[in-house]
Design brief:
Length: about 290
């Protein structure tokens, strides 16, 4: 068993915000004993065809925090998302808070700094973020203690955040009928992903798990909350005692059939900068489209 500092008696309030355009679920997590809160995996809206950025989804979260007189302390990214853009800087400008991500962001910045042919002005040291978490790091949201679990496999910088009896799994796991995330992006690895999922499933069976994405398999309604116990029993990719060998074989074959996410090119450029848009030499926001590089 792991030795992480789990405290199931702490029960944060969790408010979910579903973004239909990207099937992303963002969360506001409130300390039950104070007005302090954190945001997990925010979304910035983009009309990629028109090159237009807007903030409707982020404004909904901001309005919720303001109307409930909450104090934002953390803006957490579970990883460098490849399917939506982060609104972290926009939210930080409005509400404050520190932006945090796993310390392996440096690997992602180095990899995709080359893909997008970024110049020397693009810092590859994670300095765009306020905090870089290592495995087992602890931090507080008011009086609520939180800790991190390093969970590579989907990307090299994936990290799960545990806040009392609520765990935010990023793209490591989906709902039991959705299985698991792909592992074929640069730096991804199906063997690592299986090991990372097993770390999560060592948490108490009653632990609440909150997904970053849901796609409503077989036409069911969108869902985002389950438990460790249900994932262990029913997850179609890793549940009911499926072996690493079975998982890696399935995941590798399945990933070979998947298209790239529609927003991977803008998402990676923005998210490796903590949500900031890259600029041209005149300071104008601009996105690159590398050809045959992904």
């Amino acid at each position: 068993m792991n030795s992480y500092p789990v405290n199931m008696n702490n029960k944060p309030e969790v408010k979910a915000f579903f973004d239909e355009a990207t099937n992303t679920i963002s969360y506001v997590v409130k300390d039950p004993t104070s007005s302090s809160c954190a945001i997990i995996d925010s979304v910035m809206d983009i009309d990629y065809a028109a090159g237009r950025i807007t903030y409707e989804h982020a404004d909904m979260i901001i309005a919720y925090i303001q109307s409930n007189d909450l104090q934002l302390e953390w803006i957490i990214e579970t990883h460098v998302h490849a399917d939506h853009l982060s609104a972290a800087p926009y939210i930080q400008q409005k509400l404050g808070g520190k932006i945090g991500i796993g310390d392996k962001i440096l690997v992602v910045q180095d990899t995709f700094g080359k893909v997008f042919n970024e110049g020397t002005e693009f810092q590859r040291d994670g300095s765009q973020f306020d905090a870089l978490f290592k495995d087992g790091d602890t931090y507080k949201i008011g009086n609520l203690e939180a800790f991190t679990i390093y969970t590579p496999g989907h990307t090299p910088a994936c990290m799960v955040h545990v806040m009392g009896n609520a765990t935010f799994v990023g793209d490591t796991l989906f709902m039991p009928d959705g299985g698991s995330a792909r592992a074929d992006f640069p730096g991804g690895d199906a063997h690592e992903l299986y090991d990372s999922i097993m770390k999560i499933l060592e948490l108490p069976d009653e632990m609440r798990l909150f997904m970053c994405h849901d796609y409503g398999p077989n036409g069911r309604d969108i869902q985002w909350e389950t438990t460790v116990g249900d994932e262990k029993k029913y997850n179609v990719h890793v549940g009911a005692g499926k072996t690493k060998e079975e998982f890696v074989k399935f995941r590798t074959e399945r990933d070979a059939q998947l298209d790239m996410p529609k927003l991977i090119i803008p998402s990676l450029q923005v998210n490796m900068r903590a949500g900031d848009l890259p600029k041209d030499e005149d300071g104008n926001p601009v996105l690159k489209v590398p050809v045959n590089s992904l």
